[in-house]
Amino acid sequence: MGIQQTIFMKKLVSLFVVSSLLLICSLILLFITDKYYELFRFIKPISLVQISGFIAFALLLEVMNLRLNNESKRIAIIIAFVLVMVFTFEVLWSFGYWFSTYELKVMEGYSENSGVLDTIYYTPSTAVVDYYFFNNMILNHSAKKNTLFLFVSIYLLYYLLRRKE
Which of 8, 18, 72, 142 is most buried, by the most CB atoms less than 10 A from its CB? Predict the structure, then answer.
């Protein structure tokens, strides 16, 4: 490894550590603050989770510099495509449910504003509630989580396809 490449790897590792710490801090903020909290009156903790989570994942792949044989790479690409398919559906479902619920709230007399969007929850039916990790979830958080997972899976696919072993 040359000096330039070593310096670059040290920068990647440093950025990974910073983004991971930001991810941990934003997750803590997400769980200890209310749904209206904005850091510096600018950004919600779930948005920081989304941004730092993606950056940490992408940098982790770059730092790990995976070496895969041809067969393993082909299987990993198939798995990555499946993840893209699954999370594309989840993103579409999240936004569809979120905005249709918002529309129903507005038709019930709520005002049309982003404050109403932030108050909308998804509550699983009693028949399946035992299979969920939550009793209800803010739809904003659900949509951002699913979008994060979609873009993580897209980046994984990109990473695998550009690798030349």
Answer: 142
